[in-house]
Amino acid sequence: MVTQTTQKSNEEIANEYVNSVYDTVCNRNPDEAEFHQVVKEIFDSLVPVLAKHPEYMNQSILERIVEPERLITFRVPWVDDEGNIHVNRGYRVQFNSAIGPYKGGLRFHPSVNPSVIKFLGFEQIFKNSLTGQPIGGGKGGADFDPKGKSDAEIMRFSQSFMHELGQHIGPDVDIPAGDIGVGPREIGYMFGQYKKMRGRFEAGTITGKGMNYGGSLVRKEATGYGTIYFVEKMLEKQGISFKGQTVAVSGSGNVSIYAIEKAKELGAKVVTCSDSDGYIYDEKGIDVETVKRLKEVERRRIEDYTDEHPHAKYFDSPTDVWTVPCTVALPCATQQEIDEETANQLIKNGVIAVGEGANMPTTLEAINIFKKNNVQFAPAKAANAGGVAVSSLEMAQNNMGFSWSFDEVDGRLREIMKNIYDNSSEAAETYGYAGDLVIGANISGFLKVADAMVAQGVV
Q: Is residue 127 marked as binding?
């Protein structure tokens, strides 16, 4: 009886601590909804950990971990093809370096602002920890829209962006990579500018590079493949496989394309993909080679898929992609694309599993609906960690001066994703939330970082 009372008291103390720190975060960072959401989701998961380990409260770990070590904001002037001058805002949040140098992607998209960058950077701390690699959390980008820009305009913007960012990064400091709007073309332009600024070739400064100047095989495929490997493991625990599943995917970038490719390899039928204009439904199964060519080579809209596959249907509302009946849903487009209404629609249509390929594509309310209806849910920080995992493998190859084969990198990726699943599942069970991978991933990622912060003192 005494033990139960003590445990309840510890949980009450932990709850009060979590709520107090969260309120401070909201007051100090007003109007940052995305950042507030990710902090709330992670903090709530940590109550049982803090109740069991009050030393984290005594060391003010939450107050410290939620505050970026550094937030850099800068202007990015550039000249378009007509000679007009434009100015965008650039950002880099160097959030936490307790277990290694900052690591995280760069996003070029009009939606980029301090709240989005901080949400992504905070999430990245725990995602990177989950991979087991020695990398801390960071994120960056600019409110620049690359859509419709010429190669020359993209080059001038990327060079201007790196001219400022380059002063704050390096192989042992901060290693950026790509994200939405930043692919091999943009990475190449930025790496070239950095090389010119530094006067030497530092391959380990940025990842996602081309194979002919220090890149890694599987990097392009990594996030999509990794998401499927994680969901595959999650389904296996329920005695299910991808074979015979009907899969709906949103997006048509790298994550979506290679999630589609790997799901098909495992025997699933993928029936949708989308872009910002609309989505396609192909009852015969998406032809991934067509999508690759349209989006990666010709840079066309997904609507053009129906020109070559006239049996497929195009709909001009991208959010309606989740009205298509499926057993597995893979949101791979952007944040907040699945809300309560969408979650209920998916459940009504028979979904049994959801795997987040994008960052925070599901609202907290929708996640709770999936949990209440016993839908298996793979959270982004675990399921889409494959990209940063292979980025870390690229760093390792750069340091050693040689490249692994496709199969070797893919095998390492699959093993990392398996370990992330196992560690998240084990943490959830240890702290009384068996089967809840959201809580398990948060706890597993947090413990490694928190212990490193305690060991290093108040810095």
A: yes
